[in-house]
């Protein structure tokens, strides 16, 4: 049985953030949500020392698609809104979610409050507002009456997707997710099932991310895990993450 995993090579990573941007545009996540960060793919910068003797490192973070996922155990609805697919993806179903946030409390990699522009992160986000998206994305009014059109109208005229919607539909989550529920990375399951890599993997200019079937010894993820000594975040939590890190970030001073 296929078991999906991701390997992030920290030595190849340059900290450019293209992964986070690709996720945000591809999955239509909010930029900020009532003062909280709202990123399915995020990164954790760390600056040590004082100028001019400083060291900077950066670690991309996302849902670890844990084999032992406490977020799934904590979800109280039946059938569960947070659940595992047979291929190991931790999936979220928007319709079933009641927004109790017990998953967020249970996940060792999530926090209930993450102020914008802080160095903290939460792999599960909560939509506080009625709509988490910038009003301009859904605004159908002309920018300059009689002269310009709205973004939504222009998109419709050229047969494109309006900027507040995603380019795909999915049985488990809505392209515009409502307020009052949680959401998170789903390893771009909609792309993976079509044989495409997750958005973050495709966008990385350094090819620092590999994605594939860890149960297949010939896959790139299995090969990298065998070649390098991988690490996972918070191994002491016993969650058995399926996002692995190899090598070290090239420390910049
Ligand atoms: Fe669940 Fe958190 Fe693990 Fe993702 S990282 S599977 S949200 S416990
Ligand atoms: Fe389940 Fe939604 Fe509650 Fe999370 S917020 S535990 S997914 S019902």
Plain-language structure description:
With 253 residues, this protein is an alpha+beta fold. The protein has one domain: Alpha-Beta Plaits (2-Layer Sandwich). Helix content is 19%, strand content 19%. The chain has 8 helices and 11 strands. The strands form 5 sheets. Strands 10-1-11 form a 3-stranded mixed β-sheet. The protein has a two-stranded antiparallel sheet with strand order 2-3. A hairpin with a 5-residue loop joins strand 6 and strand 7. The longest helix is centred in the N-terminal third of the chain and has 10 residues. It is globular. The termini are far apart. The relative contact order is 0.25. Bound molecules: iron/sulfur cluster (SF4) (2 copies).
Quantity of strands, as a count: 11
Could you say which overall geometry the principal axes of the C-alpha atoms support?
Answer: globular
Classify the beta-strand content into a percent band.
15-25%
Low-confidence stretches: none
Which structural class do the helices and strands define? alpha+beta
Helix content: 10-25%
| CATH architecture assignment | 2-Layer Sandwich
Q: Major sheet: size, sense and barrel closure?
A: 3 strands, mixed
The CATH class, by name, is Alpha Beta
Q: Which kinds of small molecule does this entry bind, naming each only once?
A: iron/sulfur cluster
What is the N-to-C order of secondary-structure elements (H for helix, E for strand)? Answer: EHEEEEHEEHEHHEHHEHE
Q: How many domains would you count in the coordinates? A: 1
Q: Which topology does CATH recognise?
A: Alpha-Beta Plaits
Number of helical segments?
A: 8
